Amino acid sequence: MVVASASLASANLPRTLLPAEIAHLDNLSYNEQGLIPAIVQDYLDGTVLMMAWMNRESLQKTLETGRTWFWSRSRQALWPKGETSGHVQWVKQIRYDCDSDALVILVEQVGEAACHTGARSCFFRTLPEKEGDPMPAADTLSHVFAVVKPARRIPGPIPTPAACWPRETTPS
Amino acid sequence: MVVASASLASANLPRTLLPAEIAHLDNLSYNEQGLIPAIVQDYLDGTVLMMAWMNRESLQKTLETGRTWFWSRSRQALWPKGETSGHVQWVKQIRYDCDSDALVILVEQVGEAACHTGARSCFFRTLPEKEGDPMPAADTLSHVFAVVKPARRIPGPIPTPAACWPRETTPS
């Protein structure tokens, strides 16, 4: 898996946007409440973590600071993701669609949970509810990454695959 | 990569929904126009293909038929995806979020394009526009799959990895 090495957050932030970037923000299509849906996706394995709403100001703050800011419709206020939980989302890339009325924000999620329930993704339930549903492959990759990630942090020699999985017998 | 072997489409469809399933549809949170955003994601590699809107009726038809139906806000009509293009989306799984006000539809996309522009994903532009942006890993997997997919269709012995990539010299 190729890991993107650069991110919006790696630049000198916070920063002042260029006039062309400001103009770009104005060219997006916001709804009658001045909002645009933002789909937040894990940049590594593609898991859709959450969907929230941005207005022009929150999108500008996202670009300026390199982390996600949303607009809370219930509180009618800007909402910096992770402010209380620490589960900040560092932005790797922002995409917009063919109608310029929806965003995909590719992020590096700090912590294991993007959802306020503690789940990694807000989309943890299926319709219809089923036990033993086949796990979509995109999620399988998420789990593989969760297994491999700690091994990457072990100092010293590169661990063997056996070190990444639990085993019943102790190596001799 | 583990590939989900079952899908909603593999059951005997079209089918009549169970009373519990009907009740489930009523428990979702639709907005003031009776709509809920539906994020359509490739079930294999996690690419977000498009975002569209569903109302209760289009979601019910999606469950009944095993393919995506949306609500066109501009035409104020039900819209079966792929009706004219043939680019049908077979539904593998439907997820809903912690607030019950957004859906992720995991699909098998027929054809190479989910977008009316001919692009695989509607989210083919970045903000700010940049040449040579680092490619998010989720997209890298999409490209790997595009390379590997044709090889899976070759009848006969399982192809070697070399058969999947172009090579300058002809095998002896």
Topology record:
The structure is a homodimer of 172-residue chains.
Chain A: H1 19-27, E1 35-42, E2 48-55, H2 56-65, E3 69-72, E4 77-80, E5 89-96, E6 103-109, E7 125-126, H3 137-152
Parallel strand pairs in A: 1-6
Antiparallel strand pairs in A: 1-2, 3-4, 5-6
What is the gist of this entry?
The structure is a homodimer of 172-residue chains. Chain A has three helices and seven strands.
What does the overall shape of chain A look like?
globular
| N- to C-terminal distance of chain A | 32 Å
Strand count, sense and closure of the main sheet of chain A? 4 strands, mixed
Q: Which two chains share the most extensive interface?
A: A-B, 57 and 57 residues
Helix-strand pattern of chain A:
HEEHEEEEEH
Mean pLDDT of chain A: 81
Give the helix tally of chain A: 3
Class derived from helix and strand content of chain A = alpha+beta
Find the count of extended strands of chain A (DSSP E, 2+ residues): 7
Q: How many whole angstroms does the radius of gyration of chain A measure? A: 19 Å
pLDDT below 50 for ≥5 consecutive residues: which ranges of chain A? 1-7, 163-172
Strand order of the largest sheet of chain A: 2-1-6-5
Task: Provide the β-strand percentage band of chain A.
Answer: 15-25%
Multimer state:
homodimer
